[in-house]
Design a protein that fits this description.
- The chain folds into two domains: 84 residues, Zinc finger, CHC2-typedomain (DNA Primase, Chain A, Alpha-Beta Complex), CATH 3.90.580; 53 residues, no CATH class.
- The chain is built from six helices and nine strands.
- Helix 3 packs across helix 4.
């Protein structure tokens, strides 16, 4: 299995449990105590950047394989084998509950300069997150599943 295939196939919560980390899932994200500073870190449990984690407090980041390497004290191949043996799921599971995380998305001059109207922003639930947030500096899109449930936010960094 390739690196990308491994990241996509690993069940995030099962992988964290292998090294004794209890995570709490909120829609497409799993929150867990950062291994560097102990504050809340976040890892994506679904999508293109699945199993990539980040701590907004200490700025530590990585992917699930490097996290397992660090926590279990093992090398790359052993961590990958550990994950393949205990945390790989086929096919990928679906998100079971709606995301409760709420960004206040606002319309601003950047969006206006791009030719995006306030009506489009409201209709498609996009905008720039207000305040200090994980998606600060991004244009954020609300992601819904086939039933209309909000399951994630996706951010695209704006160019200055």
């Amino acid at each position: 299995m390739t690196y990308r295939e491994t990241l996509q196939a690993v069940d995030t919560l099962k992988a964290l449990k292998i090294v004794g980390i209890d995570g709490g899932q909120q829609g497409a994200y799993v929150y867990f105590p950062c291994t560097g500073c102990g504050k809340q870190a976040v890892i994506k449990a679904y999508g293109d950047k699945k199993n990539i984690w980040y701590c907004p407090e200490c700025k530590d980041k990585g992917h699930i394989i490097s996290l397992i390497m660090k926590m279990a004290g093992v090398e790359w191949n052993e961590a990958k084998s550990l994950l393949e043996g205990k945390a790989v799921t086929y096919p990928a599971t679906k998100i079971q509950k709606e995301l409760t995380l709420e960004y206040e998305l606002q319309y601003n001059k950047f969006l206006e300069a791009q030719g995006i109207s306030e009506e489009v922003v409201r209709e498609y639930v996009i905008g720039v997150p207000k305040g200090k947030a994980m998606l600060s500096g991004c244009v954020a899109f609300t992601v819904h599943d086939e039933n209309g449930n909000k399951i994630a936010y996706y951010g695209i960094r704006k160019h200055r």
